[in-house]
Amino acid sequence: MKKILVDSEKCSGCRICESVCSYHKLGNKFNRKKAAIKIVVEGELGENNTPVICRHCKKAKCSEACPVEAFYQDEKTGALVIDQNKCIGCGLCAEACPFGAIYLHEELSIPLKCDLCGGEPLCVKYCVPTAITYEDEQRLGALRREKGVQ
Amino acid sequence: MYGGYKRILKIDLTNETVKSELTDLLFARKFLGGNGFGVKLLYDTVTAETDPLGEDNALVIVVGPANGTIFPGAAITGIMTKSPLNGLFIDSYMGGHFGTELKSAGYDAVVITGKLKNPKFLVIENQSINFYDAEDLWGLETSKTQIKIKEKLRNPEFQVACIGPAGENLVKYASVICDTRAWGRGGIGAVFGAKNLKAIAVRGDGDIEIADPDGFLKFTTESLEIMKKHPALGKAIPSMGSTGSIDGNNSIGILGTRNWQRETFENAWKISGNAMLEQNLRIGHKACSSCIARSAIFWKARCGEYAGIVSRGPEYETLYAYGSILENDNPDSIIAADRLSDELGIDTMSTGVVIAWVMECFEKGILTAKDIDGLDVVFGNHKIILDMIRKIAKREGIGDILAEGVKVASERIGKGSNEFAIHVKGLELAGHTARGLKGMGLGYAVSSRGGSHQDTRPGAERSGKLDRAVIEGKPEHVIKNQRMTTIGDSLILCRRHAEPFFGEYLSEKYVELINLLTGFNLDLDELNMIADRIYTLERMFNCREGITRKDDILPPRFMKEPIPDGPSKGMFMRPEELDMMLDEYYSLRGWDIKTGIPPQEKLIELDLV
Question: What are the UniProt keywords, alphabetically (chain B) (predicted)?
Answer without folding.
Answer: 4Fe-4S, Iron, Iron-sulfur, Metal-binding, Oxidoreductase
